[in-house]
Design a protein that fits this description.
transmembrane helix (chains A, B, C), homotrimer, mainly alpha, 71% helix, transmembrane (chains A, B, C)
Chain lengths: 224, 224, 224
């Protein structure tokens, strides 16, 4: 299918609602991390912004869409600001619903891996590269957040429920759909829902990815 | 006002003196961090370079000015080298005047938030985005320095005098000046001086930004 | 010499074999770090990819070659995947030959500092800037790996054999060769071999770079 159509499977309004929802939930996750690390209000805002927008900015720099989309639309900037303000005042309440936050974050993951892969296709990248950029869009902001907050990135840790695999599956589904000419608003939504459900199930069931072969008995305590 | 004029409010020579001054003081701060962390001479040079040039390189990648300005002019590269050499031999003396260094660093902060915002405007970005990139120019190099040296970035910590807020104020002043057509060499200088004075006052008075609502009594010890 | 010829000193096939060799050994080093840090299989793959491709991606973003070369050729993506799989199953054997890995890593260092510098020249950068980007290509991926794994980057530590200096010498040799019109397949190979041998000798002899003047007696214990 023609590249320019790949990105426009949703109407502009639907796309924007989806984007802003994903940005909002990622920003809440970033702001909560800042509160837990005892950062000040500036740290809360900065961590909300980079968590929500970081993955997309890296993707856009790599595909050559400059300035990145995050710099095109004021809504992209102000949504994390709003999320940061909410967390600043209501963090005890937000912490109490942190299982709910995990669900929202899973929604952001599902959404971003699909839209990220689609955008990379729209800029002419091949299916494997587009998949890689879909994963980057979904997990990149969280990785920057963890590096700035001096945490081991969640996506590398074996003692956390799998995070990258659902994004990989969602992105790969999009690649298959585009390559077979079946990518449209319905199949894209299905791919996002599948990645979302995969992540929620992984959280619920405590699914983890294996560590290196014959390494399971050792405890290193690297994650304190 | 026409974008191309925004960046050219100073004569080329004045602009270069200001840029190199900011780069020099940021490089000294980076080199000092490397000495304190016991890095070798290569680490001192690398940390001086990324501290001095990192913020501007990120800005230029985002606005699409490639290769970044830091790669255009040999002075941009050699100034941090010179600063690193100075610190290598004279670090005890430099440490002794570290309050003076803080003053110089504040000058770099004031200068870079103004020139960074102006350059983003010159590349067609809107006022909010240009402000964000002005802040990035001013604080980005220091953030990379802290990440490489495995420190919690100063700009996130509540137990440090405010650093990002003066840059934000300086950048926002530039945005207002440009939008109202009042941006020129005099008002730009005034904005830089205001951000500089704000930072120096914050250092002198120990101004800090608030942490999240109702979180002030807890001590977490995350910053050791 | 004309820029476009600088990058084409080797035949396409030779160039590709050299590139993939460098990518493979860097990926093995990244995957081994992930195993040592007890990351899961996803962490092993991600760390292999960023270690192998990170330096080149930064170089390509800075010179404006987007999408970066790593996104052009499927071999660039699949080689680290293969290396990660190998380390996943054979890590005890690979650890046992870690001196051999160090030799391979030195080969990657020698190769990448030469090809990175040549590519920067081909995109019109000056000799000093091209040298800086050659060093970035050689050491950038390892720096990202260390930051993600929450290690102090090897290239900053005084208690490690010199790593950046051989890359600097190799890159500077290329710059001199290009500027004097003597850059060709033979001299380029010689520069890469020189950087490689320099690094191997540094490992063998335990060469270290000096720390700041009069700082040698202090022990800070920052590297645990």
């Amino acid at each position: 299918m023609p590249p320019q159509e790949i990105q426009e499977i949703y109407s502009h309004n639907v796309q924007q609602v989806l984007d802003l929802t994903g940005i909002f939930v990622f920003a809440v996750a970033g702001a909560l991390m800042a509160v837990r690390k005892n950062f000040d209000v500036i740290g809360i805002v900065l961590l909300a912004e980079v968590t929500a927008l970081g993955g997309g900015v890296i993707r856009d720099l790599i595909i050559g869409d400059v300035p990145p989309a995050a710099f095109d639309d004021l809504g992209y900037f102000s949504t994390p600001l709003f999320a940061a303000g909410l967390v600043f005042f209501l963090h005890p309440q937000v912490e109490r619903i942190s299982r709910t936050i995990d669900i929202f974050d899973a929604a952001g993951l599902g959404l971003f891996c699909v839209t990220g892969t689609a955008k990379a296709f729209a800029y002419g990248l091949g299916p494997v590269q587009a998949t890689a950029l879909g994963i980057t869009t979904a997990v990149g902001g969280g990785a920057i957040r963890d590096v700035l907050a001096r945490e081991v990135p969640v996506l590398l840790r074996w003692d956390r429920e799998i995070y990258t695999v659902p994004a990989l599956v969602g992105a790969a589904l999009v690649a298959v759909l585009v390559e077979t000419g079946n990518f449209n608003a319905y199949t894209a939504t299905a791919a996002a829902v599948f990645a979302f459900a995969f992540r929620v199930l992984a959280l619920h069931k405590g699914w983890r990815a294996p560590r290196a072969w014959r390494r399971n008995s050792e405890v290193r305590g690297d994650f304190d």
